[in-house]
């Protein structure tokens, strides 16, 4: 495998992963973003910063999260054995806490007073509100009105943690609009605030910074899988892809292992027409959004198209620049799962393993189920179970429960 895949060699100094990434911002704002880049590059190698973060990841978050063999699910499928990286067991219930703690510590070291961000499913918002409370920072969370109603349990958690929830009323009132308004909020005072972006998207250095904080997922999983199975590597990796933080977190440790097949699962929603899905790499083309280049679902004028997914955390029209690069060089196979497949996987994992997954993670489980059925039982699949489904349970039961005897 080409050495350029190695995480420590990408992005380049200008924030590019191949043709994607970079930073396209007004000069005054770019200077402030450059300050964040400079601060992060110093902190990431600082022993005291690393010790502080590692302490919190171990004793506060509960890392390492375990790798679990889904014995019942694997037996019932009758194909490859499925293993789950249990990020749902982290404090706050998802992988998001890995990078929000890192971002909050960066903000503290830069003497910022507030961290602000967008959220879709609410997991990033909860994790950031948690980190802000712990570190002693103010916290503003921008969230679309549609997602506020859909993910209300997480809204209550954020309020309990002391965060200020700012409803977004524009456009489709979902994740893309929340990002738009969070950026506008940041622009009002970029000196005392830090935008703690929720995925491996945005202008440089955010795709790199979030990736670096999330790569612990794959680093742990690599060691744990070998210990659990006696095999050096899994045959396949599967993770859902919206912006792409949980998937890059798992994939990074395995990118140079040619024997490992890697699958990123996008939401095909309810169809392949505009506004029916958020499958960016499947249907998009290179474009620009929120200050960086990536694959983008866009109209003829190059503006972001409407998107949809049953999983609020996946309905973003862009995708991380590193995912865009990995798509171009064909290192990762980007595939899809529908709403119905994700909901079915939600109930199946719940009832066969006693694990209620987030709807985002259910897309990965759905594809793993399909993939396992095509493979011999000597093969293995490692899935990043990126979050738990507490936030989704009321919505799922209300909308789909009748189909599952509820």
Topology summary:
Blueprint: E1 16-17, E2 20-21, H1 27-43, H2 47-61, E3 67-69, H3 71-77, E4 81-86, H4 96-109, E5 114-119, H5 123-135, E6 138-144, H6 145-150, H7 152-160, E7 164-168, H8 175-188, E8 193-195, H9 206-214, H10 216-229, E9 236-240, H11 245-251, E10 261-269, H12 280-283, E11 285-289, E12 292-296, H13 321-328, E13 333-338, H14 339-353, H15 359-374, E14 380-385, H16 393-400
Parallel strand pairs: 4-14, 5-6, 5-8, 6-7, 9-10, 9-14, 10-13
Antiparallel strand pairs: 1-2, 3-4, 11-12
Give the termini separation. Answer: 49 Å
CATH topology of the largest domain: Rossmann fold
Strands in their spatial order, largest beta sheet: 3-4-14-9-10-13
Tell how many strands the DSSP assignment holds. Answer: 14
Number of helices, where a helix is a run of at least 4 consecutive DSSP H or I residues: 16
Helix share, percent: 40-55%
Largest sheet: 6 strands, mixed
Beta-strand content estimate: 15-25%
Number of domains: 2
């Amino acid at each position: 495998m080409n050495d350029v895949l190695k995480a420590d060699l990408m992005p380049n100094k200008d924030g590019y992963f191949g043709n994607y990434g970079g930073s396209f911002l007004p000069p005054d704002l770019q200077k402030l973003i450059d300050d964040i880049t400079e601060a992060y590059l110093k902190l990431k190698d600082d022993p005291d910063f690393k010790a502080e973060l590692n302490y919190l990841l171990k004793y506060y978050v509960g890392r390492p999260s375990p790798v679990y063999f889904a014995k019942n699910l694997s037996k019932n499928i009758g194909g490859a054995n499925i293993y789950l990286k249990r990020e749902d067991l982290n404090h706050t219930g998802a992988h998001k806490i890995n990078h929000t703690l890192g971002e909050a510590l960066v903000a503290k070291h830069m003497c910022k007073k507030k961290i602000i961000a967008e959220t879709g499913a609410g997991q990033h918002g909860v994790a950031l509100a948690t980190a802000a409370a712990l570190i002693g920072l103010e916290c503003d969370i921008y969230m679309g009105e549609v997602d506020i109603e859909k993910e209300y349990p997480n809204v209550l958690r954020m309020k309990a943690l002391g965060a200020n929830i700012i409803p977004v009323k524009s456009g489709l009132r979902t994740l893309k609009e929340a990002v738009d308004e969070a950026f506008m909020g940041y622009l009002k005072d970029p000196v005392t605030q830090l935008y703690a972006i929720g995925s491996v998207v945005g202008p440089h250095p955010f795709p790199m910074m979030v990736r670096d904080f999330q790569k612990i997922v794959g680093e742990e999983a690599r060691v744990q899988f070998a210990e659990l199975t006696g095999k050096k590597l899994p045959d396949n990796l599967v993770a859902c892809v919206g912006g792409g933080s949980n998937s890059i977190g798992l994939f990074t440790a395995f990118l140079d292992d040619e024997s490992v097949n890697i699958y990123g699962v996008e939401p095909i929603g309810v169809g392949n027409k505009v506004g029916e899905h958020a499958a960016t790499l499947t249907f998009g083309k290179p474009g620009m959004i929120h200050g960086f280049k990536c694959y983008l679902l866009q109209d003829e004028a190059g503006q972001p198209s409407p998107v949809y997914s049953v999983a609020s955390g996946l309905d973003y029209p862009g995708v991380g620049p590193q995912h865009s690069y990995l798509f171009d060089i064909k290192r990762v196979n980007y595939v899809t799962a529908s709403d119905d497949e994700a909901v079915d996987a939600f109930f199946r994992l719940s009832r066969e393993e006693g694990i209620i997954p987030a709807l985002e993670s259910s897309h990965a489980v759905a594809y793993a189920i399909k993939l396992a059925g095509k493979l011999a039982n000597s093969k293995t699949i490692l899935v990043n179970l990126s979050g738990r489904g507490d936030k989704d349970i009321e919505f799922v039961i209300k909308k789909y429960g009748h189909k599952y005897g509820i």
